[in-house]
Amino acid sequence: MISNILLGSNDIKKAEAFYNELLAIFGARQSINNDNAILWKSEDSSVGIAVCKPQNELVATNGNGSMVGLKADSKEMVIAVYEKAISLGGSCEGAPGERKPGVFAAYFRDLDNNKFGIFYVYS
Questions:
Q1: Facing residues of 102 across strands?
Q2: 115-121 and 37-42 as β-strands: parallel, antiparallel, unpaired?
Q3: d(CA 18, CA 30)
Q4: Topology, domain 4-54+66-121
Q5: Which has the closest alpha carbon to 107: 73, 46, 66?
Q6: Which of 85, 76, 83, 63 lies closest to 104 in space, CA to CA?
Q7: CA nearest neighbour of 80 among 22, 16, 17, 14
Q8: Which of 66, 71, 58 is nearest to 114 (CA)?
Q9: Is the whole-model pTM more than 0.90?
């Protein structure tokens, strides 16, 4: 149902460096890169994450109440993604931990203040 997630950025080069390292944890690589947008996809997923300059040439802003949820394969992956995001200049929105029985998660914001959650669901 979803083909990609598109996030606005005010600095495509900084976003590129951030997402190159962060999404490598998922095995994602750039599949499109032009002056206005960059798209990352992994081989095993048809859904990608992209950053772009807004078409209307206004400042990119994050959505209040919007969040991208990423699926992790383990608690260790949740921690690794969260720590990588923070080390690359992202900000903490909730350190890794148990959120409810069977759900281990963490939350962060990217360099343009877009919010992400990284989730590992287990029994």
A1: none
A2: unpaired
A3: 12
A4: 2,3-Dihydroxybiphenyl 1,2-Dioxygenase; domain 1 (3.10.180)
A5: 66
A6: 76
A7: 22
A8: 66
A9: yes
DSSP string across the chain = ---EEEEE-S-HHHHHHHHHHHHHTTTEEEEEE-SSEEEEEETT-S-EEEEE--TT-SPP-PPTT--EEEE-SSHHHHHHHHHHHHHTT-EEEEEEEEEETTEEEEEEE-TT--EEEEEEE--
Structure confidence by residue, pLDDT tens digits, 1-55: 888 999 999 999 999 999 999 999 999 999 999 988 999 999 988 899 999 999 9
Residues 112, 123: Cα–Cα separation, whole Å = 34
Residues in the chain: 123
Q: Per-domain residue ranges for the chain?
A: 4-54+66-121
For 116, other C-beta atoms within 10 Å of its C-beta total 21
Q: Return the closest-CA partner of residue 38 out of 27, 25, 23, 26.
A: 23
